[in-house]
Specification:
The chain has five helices and no strands. With about 70 residues, it is mainly alpha-helical. Helix 1 packs across helix 3 and helix 2 packs across helix 4.
């Protein structure tokens, strides 16, 4: 399960409802929640955040919390 999948599961969100509200296909929602190699686009993340009544900024911080800049020295 991806971080997005964990967020949706924690909020007990119905993926079909997210699909209807965002216009994203159920297959795309499933891919984004189950496939670690799936790339979540910014517009998709924003729409999903709105659909589940979450702050898009908080969702972005949660989804990107493991990202770090490379040490250039």
């Amino acid at each position: 399960m991806t971080k997005l999948g964990e967020i949706l599961a924690k909020k007990s969100v119905n993926k079909s409802m997210v699909s209807r509200k965002t216009g994203l296909s159920k297959a795309r929602i499933n891919e984004l929640t189950m496939n670690d190699t799936a790339k979540l686009r910014l517009d998709e993340m924003y729409l999903i955040a709105l659909a589940i009544d979450s702050d898009p900024n908080e969702m972005m911080l949660r989804l990107c919390e493991d990202l770090r800049l490379k040490d250039t020295i």
